[in-house]
Design brief:
Layout (H helix, E strand, L loop, with lengths): L10 E6 L2 E6 L10 H16 L5 E6 L10 H6 L8 H10 L5 E5 L2 E3 L1 H4 L6 E5 L3 E3 L13 H9 L1 H10 L3 E2 H7 L4 E3 L4 H13 L3 H12 L3 H19 L2 H11 L12
Parallel strand pairs: 2-3, 3-4, 4-6, 5-7, 6-9
Antiparallel strand pairs: 1-2, 7-8
Helix pairs in contact: 1-3, 3-10, 5-6, 5-10
The structure holds coenzyme A.
The site of coenzyme A (COA) has 15 residues, from helix 2 and strand 5.
Length: 263
């Protein structure tokens, strides 16, 4: 059955050549993701999975950013209340996709902007892109299965450093860590990712999906469980005084002061 992918809630879609592009489009906020945007992305991923016309999903960002992660204002005003909340539904949807997902990263990939890449099958990034896992700096904890997926991908030492310090890292470092497949000129990323998607779209989709399933067969349940355990912790951390201090600090353009919570 033909599906419709009506762009809305700052998520644009474009389907051609069996490739569904899902583009986060809120450049004035560096494509920070709201509850509505998560819901839309989850809806499109779910539709794509059952749409015979879609073979490959390509995720990108508009206006020179991939995404600055969870919208901190929206996160405060509409925090996830249970594990079926839109942010967790998105994590589950992208982690369970049977069809290939390709990411084209231009600019910032913060928080879920980086952790969603762990669920993408191929990732291409612009040479000036920046990656960041700021969970500790926000008084939060890892999400999207990253506490399980990062160590085997980038090495336990690197995973700890990236998560503890929450410092931005370059495309070059991301490539060295194995987080991305390739580095392109910024303006070429989407085009290159589309070329790769077109190549995949011409191959046997049964073989591609079987290959994806085989590559993930040992980890599917562990990833689901990790997302769920992290979700439980994240909901608690979001209600913590440390998170309140970190979020206030962001909007007040100052450094967070955790000292009073460490005594
Ligand atoms: N949530 C809410 N608003 C955000 C945002 C986010 N995650 N990221 C950016 N914005 C907003 C800024 O508040 C700013 O809004 P304003 O123009 O109304 O002041 C606008 O988007 C542009 O961002 P700005 O900070 O001016 O751009 P920058 O290039 O100097 O810095 C970031 C970009 C992403 C490094 C910085 O905005 C940032 O650290 N954002 C928070 C990232 C984050 O912690 N995400 C959550 C992960 S769980």
């Amino acid at each position: 059955m033909a599906q419709s992918y009506k762009s809305s809630d700052k998520i644009d879609t474009f389907l051609s050549d069996h490739i569904l592009r899902i583009i986060m489009n809120r450049p004035e906020k560096k494509n920070a993701l709201t509850v509505a945007m998560y819901s839309k992305m989850t809806e499109f991923l779910s539709q794509a999975e059952i749409d015979e016309n879609v073979r490959i999903i390509l995720i990108g960002g508009a206006g020179g950013s991939f995404t600055s992660g969870n919208d901190l204002k929206d996160f405060l005003e509409n925090p996830p209340r249970d594990k079926s909340s839109p942010v967790f539904a998105f994590m589950n949807a992208i982690s369970q996709m049977e069809k290939p997902v390709i990411a084209a990263v231009e600019g910032l990939a913060v928080g879920i902007g980086t952790t969603m890449l762990l669920h993408c099958d191929l990732v291409y990034a612009g040479k000036n892109s920046k990656f960041l896992l700021p969970f500790v700096n926000l008084g939060l904890c890892p999400e999207a299965g990253s506490s399980f997926l990062l160590p085997p991908l980038v090495g336990a030492r690197n995973a700890t450093e990236l998560l503890f310090l929450g410092e931005p890292f370059s495309a070059e470092r991301a490539k060295e860590l194995g987080l991305i497949n390739g580095i392109l000129e910024d303006s070429e990323v989407l085009k290159y990712a589309e070329q790769q998607a077109r190549k995949l779209a011409l191959k046997s989709q049964t073989s591609i999906r079987l290959t994806k399933a085989m590559l993930k067969r040992k980890y599917g349940q562990i990833i689901k469980d990790t997302i769920s355990e992290e979700a439980e912790l994240l909901m608690k951390r979001l209600a913590s005084p440390e998170a309140a201090e970190a979020f206030a600090a962001f909007f007040e353009h100052r450094q967070a002061d955790f000292e009073k919570f460490n005594k």
